[in-house]
Specification:
- It is a single chain.
- About 35% of the residues lie in helices and about 20% in strands.
- It is of the alpha/beta class.
- The longest helix is centred in the N-terminal third of the chain and has 16 residues, at about 105-120.
- The chain is globular.
- The structure holds 4'-deoxy-4'-aminopyridoxal-5'-phosphate.
Amino acid sequence: MNNRQLFLSHLAQTTDFPLMIEIEKAEGIYMYGPEGKEYMDLISGIGVSNVGHRHPKVLEAIQNQLDKYLHLMVYGEYVQSPQVQLAKALCETLPSHLDNVYFVNSGSEAVEGALKLAKRYTNRREIISCVNAYHGSSHGSLSVGGNEIFKRAYRPLLPGIKNVVYGSFQQLDEITENTAAFIVETIQGEAGIMVACSEYFKALRRKCDETGTLLILDEIQAGFGRTGKFWAFEHFGIVPDILVCAKGMGGGMPIGAFIANKDVMGAFKNNPLLGHITTFGGHPVSAAASLATIKVIQEEKLLEQVETKANLFKKLLVHPKIRSIHNKGLMMAVEFESFEVLKPIIDRAIENGVITDWFLFCDDAMRIAPPLIITEEEIEKACGVILEAIEGR
Ligand code: PMP
């Protein structure tokens, strides 16, 4: 059997329409199939490869760490240089009160940790989250998700969860002194890139302060430079109590974190109650890769280029079949009439060497989230292929 047949026979299938592109090598914004077929990656493994595939600085950091040690001990027991150096570097990108980092393996696990921490710190049970939110696929993170279709089969989920509309000022009144946390994606990703306004975030912050509710911002997709700021919340003039990140954080390696104030994080320490335990969280190789990723974003001044590159996409992607484009930096959704219109466009573009896809909760919009290192010439080339695909070529 060839690899595509093995994929269908032995790999658990997760979607009706797997992209099923076979890749043998990836470098920068490019991926290469078996016969050397070249693809431009415009989705970055869903917001992961922000510094491109196999960035040399990330590879070097991984190689250096491979020569030292792999796993040593469950997270939080031994002093491991990659973890402490990464924690310091992360805190330096953040407002000073966010000074304590808990490393985990994934976005879902970071959300789990953040929710548990909010319950422990506030001693409250209610959590508020948003309609159409995606926070992960584990039971806890699914419980705060905002799409009933995805949740129905798994009920009963966590009790005490309320969904409100993202961006609704009126529904901020749902936040009370019983609310442990309000969890929200700063930019809603899987809903098709929805962006609330600064006034909303400021009102949300005020309401959380008035009621002693912790504000958890999920920047798993929007963080690490994707929107043109290191953290998306910097666009809105607010700061979270707990920040969750993953995806782009590892430069292609698996790692996540929830970050809070030392005082808040201290709620996890009291024995004999369990806080959060993770065997592989903050794996030294992933932590070394993540530290290199932060340096690459800073040294290559990637943030400064995001807005110009996003504007170029918007300037070039003009066609009667494109209804609108919404974005925050290089986190973009290109809207079509329906999935039936969009799907063959995506297929043709892939055939012609440009990879895009759609969103979990928004299947009539094309996802464009390329590595931030994409050049203007590459954007022009990619948009040319997409426009041709729209034309049916
Ligand atoms: N939150 C957001 C906003 C996400 O986009 C995702 C992943 N798509 C997650 C949480 C879950 O992350 P993971 O798949 O690493 O568990």
